[in-house]
What does this fold into?
Amino acid sequence: MKKVFAFVAMMGLLTFGVNQTINAQETEAPATEEVAQDDSASVAAAEENVVEEAAPEEEEGEGLHKTIKVKFIEGSAGFMSLVAIAMIFGLALCIERIIFLSLSEINSKKLLEDIQTALENGDVEGAKSICRDTRGPVASICYQGMMRIDEGLDVVERSVVSYGSVQASNLEKNLSWITLFIAMSPSLGFLGTVIGMVQAFDDIQKAGDISPNVVAGGMKVALITTIFGIIVALILQVFYNYILSKVEALNTDMEDSSVTLLDIIMKYNLKFKK
It folds into this structure.
């Protein structure tokens, strides 16, 4: 989660820096024109060359935002809007999962040490309170095991395994919807491509001539929708793989903690239930 926030912050700083550079160039432009009018003809020519060289840089700084807007409009607003909606919903689900999984991560080693300390002193209720007051699936599994500590180790083990399956399902919630949007994005792009090709052939039929100008318009619209669809799918795929890595880490942590909890309960039974 920290890496994601750092990446977003870095992108924001870069965008802010580009905007500051553009504003600085715009404010310096009038001063340059006044100096050009007061100086000699040679100095004016030199200043004009500097302005002409600075203009492409300014256009290059603004080019990314303008290009995205222009290409979005050129790619047929209907299909481009569908791709954008798929990206918005997909990113919303990804962010929700990342926040949920980040909040589910705890220091399970410390939790188990606190439980072990409480059970060594015979304080079962204190161990239950520790589990109940701690967030995350590991603490929930431990609490379910502590609730049945007096019913035998076999009952505790079945309870931990059953509840662990429930917690694993909660971790994977909404992942199927993310995969749906990953598949939909390029599919919508390809659909726009096919429709753009059909429109291109319609234009050729109306014109009665296969000229490059007639064909290029429809082909351009078709390819733009495909490009945006693939880009959206790639972005969502990166987030999806990151989420899967966190789910796998939490599942491993739950399994290790369950085994450790059973060992702790077995030692408690041997010590206090002879």
